[in-house]
Amino acid sequence: MNARSMPPVLLLAFLVAGCPGPVMRDLEPALQSYQAGAQADVRSWYLRAVVSEQRGELEDAEHAWVWVVRLDGREPWAHLGRGAFLERQGRWDEALDAYRAAIVILPNHAEAELGIGRVLVGRGFDAEALPHLQAAAAGDDPDALQLLGRLLVRLGDLEEATAVYEEWFARPVTRADEHLDRARLAVSLDRHGEAVDDLVAALQAGGAAPVTGELLVDAARRSCRVGTAWRWAYGDRVADRGDPYWRRIALAIGRSARDVEMVEAALRTGEGLEPEVLMPRVDLLTSTGRYDEALAAIREARAIRPEDLGLLVSEGRVLRAAGQSRQALALWEEIPLEHAHGPTAFRERATLLLELGEPNAALEVADAGMVAHPESPRLGAVRAEALQDLGQIDAAEEKMHALPEWPEAERWRQVARLRRERGDLAGAAEALQRGAELGHAPSVRDLARVHQQVGDLERALGAWHHLVAIDPGDASAWVAIAQLSSTERTEALQRALEADSCQVDALLLRAGEISGCVAVPWAERAVDAAPLVPEVLEALGAAYHACGVDLRHRGDLAGMASQVEGLRQVERTWWVLGEEGTAQQVAAKRRALQH
Q1: Assuming Cys at both sites, which of 1, 23, 192, 243 could form a disulfide with 19, CB separation 3.0 to 4.6 Å?
Q2: For residues 370 and 520, what is the distance between their CA atoms, to the nearest angstrom?
């Protein structure tokens, strides 16, 4: 269809959406043709308004809209088009008048009602906008449904907002922007699981990855559906791995899923020297023992950014991890104390000297650092450790208590750390108790763990109860209570899952305390929350086997198992799937992935 035969409503759609380049090329000759004809032809003025706005010739576009209304002002579309133009220019009052003129001609016109509601919302008149958006939404306009739902959430009418969402959810949606808008409303209603489906659909339909991907990561974490996001990012989008947007999404999802291979793929694509890529890649290479590759990446960056002394700090850390301690020390010595990275370099040097059994040298470095940076609590903590290693126990604790930047409870916690390092668990518990009495949650958590370490389970349970009294939303504390108290197990697990419905340990405990097919949904939920943790896959395999599920039909589970086999952070794990009696066979040595 060429521009000469386009109905006005289609041209209006182009105007509202913004004409893309190819459409503009079609309109240019049509515009010239119209302009050569009668000035009374409304289509000529309409095209002139469209093209002029796209060119940035706003005065000419406004002039054309005046003629459109003058020639065809008895039709609502003319006022709607002029209103949309004025709204885009931020001329709210004039846009409102134009939309209202369309309503006068055709009462309850959905597009006009939406325009009025949109302008009123933009100006902060939420209550006044509500009836107009409700009228617009009656016509099933997705933009109206989205705006109405968000407005109802903001007004606190969650029941009506949910009804709008469910009405929208029942309709077939195909466009990426509709999926994205519907997902945003789902998120605002805490329906994160449904949001995940829409966000994946939006991405599959070519939606804007930067926004959609970040929403997907957050919704997946909140709804225990990391596995769903992982399967999309790892499997379905292989062709897009050179896209920097995919890299950001994949990096976040890969970390949530604890998938080293996927994280590495995300970090390997694109510009390798971007700061947001370089350091995570270096950390990954270091954690997997690939020190030469990590050093090569940092040194390549240093050649380009020799003034960045933070790269020297990072290179020293890799050398230290590789066992090249003296080289690391020499590198850190190149960083002057007065530099922004100076305190960090001095702290790294002092800590490494302590590890090398040289407390005097460590104390000398820490003292030098404290002269220039007396406010640095971390340098002060290293200094205290050096004093302790030299046998000056009282002086060490005195220095730890004197650290200026840490509150009293945190200082007691650091004293407890010193005592634990020298094997004084009773003294550590005493120090942590002082912090616990101040309501310091980290001290209470450490106290519970010390009590468990020495086998005093009654006191450990009391400390965990103290922690949930401070923070009832601490799911891991509720899990600890469930593990220590059989009488409180059921209630504690319920409280843990109320605090965090994706708490993997709670899900596994819940699956483990029931039998048969009833355990399967709990294990499946745990796998979707943490799809690549060996123990979680083991629990799912056990649940399927007990339920009589044939694992040969679960290709997704087999795929996840193969991913686990390739992960470098865990000792080799073997899964045997689909063989009678061997659905759950894991090598004796296994451990969960590091967070």
Answers
A1: 23
A2: 57
Handedness of CA 90, 92, 94, 99 (dihedral sign): positive
Place of tokens 């002269």: 371
CA distance 72 to 83: 14
Q: Which residue has the tokens 């990072």?
A: 314
Query: What whole-number distance in Å separates Cα of residue 538 and Cα of residue 197?
Result: 26
Between CA 482 and CA 461 the distance in angstroms is 10
pLDDT above 60 (res 393)? yes
Q: DSSP string spanning 393-424?
A: HHHHHHHHHT-SSS-HHHHHHHHHHHHHHTT-
**What's residue 578's pLDDT?**
26
**Residues 152-164: what's their mean pLDDT?**
83
pLDDT value for 32: 55
Spatial separation of the C-alpha atoms in residues 479 and 467, rounded to whole Å: 12
By three-state DSSP, how is residue 337 classified? coil
Helix, strand, coil share (%) of the chain residues, nearest 5: 75, 0, 25
Estimate to the nearest angstrom the gap between the alpha carbon of 534 and the chain centroid. 23
φ, ψ at 246 (rounded to 5°): -60, -40
* 8 A C-beta contact, residue 150 and residue 183: no
pLDDT tens-digit readout, 444-467: 999 999 999 999 999 999 999 999
- One-letter amino acid at 209 equals A
Instruction: Dihedral sign for Cα 532, 535, 540, 541, please.
Output: positive
How many whole angstroms separate alpha carbon 407 and alpha carbon 403? 9
Beta-strand runs (E) in 179-222: none
Q: What is the pTM of this model?
A: 0.60
Distance CA 192, CA 312 (A): 42
Residue 26 pLDDT level (bands cut at 50, 70, 90): low
Nearest to 411, CA basis, from 427, 385, 388, 434: 434
C-alpha distance from residue 232 to each of 164, 237, 277 (Å): 28, 7, 21
Q: What is the 3-state secondary structure (H, E, C) of 224-273?
A: CCHHHHHHHHHHHCHHHCCCHHHHHHHHHHHHHHCCHHHHHHHHHCCCCC
How many other CB atoms sit within 10 Å of the CB of residue 305?
A: 14
Model confidence at 495: pLDDT above 80: yes
Half-sphere exposure of 400 (CA within 13 A, CB side): 25
